[in-house]
Design goal:
It comes from Chryseolinea serpens. The chain is mainly beta. It is built from no helices and 35 strands. It has a 6-stranded antiparallel beta sheet with strand order 1-2-25-24-23-22, with no helix packed on it. Strands 30, 31, 32, 33 and 34 form a 5-stranded antiparallel beta sheet that branches. Strands 5-4-3-35 form a 4-stranded antiparallel beta sheet, with no helix packed on it. The termini are far apart.
């Protein structure tokens, strides 16, 4: 058993990564980062009176900002397609000009739009509390199909669209969840997999495998053609994961991280963390580094990086004692973006910009609002 001991800059804190399990390591292709220049930064926030939508220029200057609704309803969610910013918080869908903030169209407020609008192949998809999968022209806001595809259950999360099939998380009125594959053209349900009374999360498709974490914190791989279970891991409580090619990197509980084959569920390596963390979160991959946060006692935290191919420890950095609320990291080119909300008054809210290789702070943008809802980085290639 090999142990790697890393002393932190802070002195007393020590991180211990233990090699628990290993199969033949396969090289992971990490292509060079292609910098797609940022064209805009959109964020949805709210305070105790209203909900705000803000768009910033690449240099951090404010392009436009407006109050877009009350502070109640579902969490505001943002999507983007060719100059149009879509925003939904459960009471319809709103489309804004990304340059000026002008309202281009609004609609679908006669029922609850229960999921983020998702654009795929120039079609805007959204699910509703009337068990429908809407297909909308993103430019005009008109329905492309009426009546819509009926899912048969409430769909509280964004649909995952691939090759004409919508993969959705469906819930009965008693909150029993399943994952369904529905042919968008015909409306026919191809298959359904029961999950249970806790919602699944993190649906991703790699090749013919749909991966997810179910309500019991188990990792699963499902064949998208047949709906059959290809593999399942229940050796740990998995709470967060990312994919890169055919590899899943998954955080389990407060103890460790594993690299897993997305098609078979076989582990390439697994590491246990001896630093007394209460939570592991905000996992991301940059070149050959897998980087994540370790939180202790709800306040102090550090960033740690390990090699993505072998799991060997690379570096760890203390990040302060009072742990802020940080959104999931978004990497665009050579920068990493996170929304930061302080845990104590005066509750400053900022978009933080870091070097993804070192997690060194590069810049920050002040944002109105006390609570974070959604963040979207818009690049030149999609602008």
């Amino acid at each position: 058993m090999k142990k790697i001991l890393l002393a932190l800059v802070a002195g007393a804190s020590v991180l211990l990564l233990t090699r628990c399990h290993e199969t033949d390591d396969q090289p992971i292709d990490n292509p060079p980062v292609v910098v797609d220049p940022v064209a805009g930064i959109a964020v949805s926030t709210r305070d105790n009176t209203a909900r705000m939508l803000s768009v910033f220029n690449p240099d951090g200057s404010l392009r436009w900002e407006k109050k877009v609704g009350p502070n109640n309803g579902l969490i505001g969610q943002i999507s983007y397609h060719r100059g149009i910013l879509f925003h939904s918080y459960g009471l319809g869908i709103y489309a804004y000009d990304i340059k000026t903030g002008a309202l281009l169209w609004k609609g679908f407020d006669s029922f609850m739009t229960a999921s983020r609008p998702t654009v795929e192949n120039a079609v805007l998809y959204s699910c509703t509390d009337t068990y429908e999968l809407l297909e909308i022209d993103p430019t005009s806001g008109t329905r492309l199909k009426n009546p819509s595809v009926l899912v048969g259950d409430l769909v509280p999360y964004p649909p995952l669209i691939k090759d004409g099939i919508a993969y959705v998380v469906a819930s009965t009125p008693l909150a029993y969840y399943s994952v369904k594959a529905i042919d968008i053209k015909t409306g026919v349900e191809k298959w359904a997999v029961a999950i249970g009374y806790n919602p699944p999360r993190g649906l991703r498709i790699t090749g013919t495998t749909l991966s997810l974490i179910n309500g019991g914190a188990q990792l699963k791989g499902i064949n998208i053609n047949t709906g059959t279970l290809q593999w399942e891991l229940n050796d740990h409580g998995y709470f967060e994961y990312i994919t890169d090619g055919d590899v899943i990197y998954a955080l389990w509980g407060d103890r460790g991280i594993a690299a897993i084959d997305v098609h078979t569920g076989a582990k390439r390596w697994q590491r246990e963390i001896a630093w007394p963390a209460n939570q592991l979160k905000n996992l991301y991959l940059y070149k050959e580094q897998v980087i994540f946060q370790l939180v202790k006692g709800g306040n102090s935290f550090l960033m740690t990086a390990i090699n993505s191919t072998h799991g060997d420890s690379l570096w760890s950095k203390p990040q302060g004692y009072f742990f802020p609320d940080l959104s999931a990291p978004i990497i665009s080119g050579d920068k990493l973006y996170q929304f930061r909300t302080d845990m104590f008054e005066p509750y400053e809210t900022k978009i933080m910009i870091y070097d993804p290789a070192t997690y060194n702070r590069l810049d920050s943008i002040d944002v109105e609002g006390e609570s974070f809802e959604d963040l979207r980085i818009i690049t030149e290639s999609e602008h």
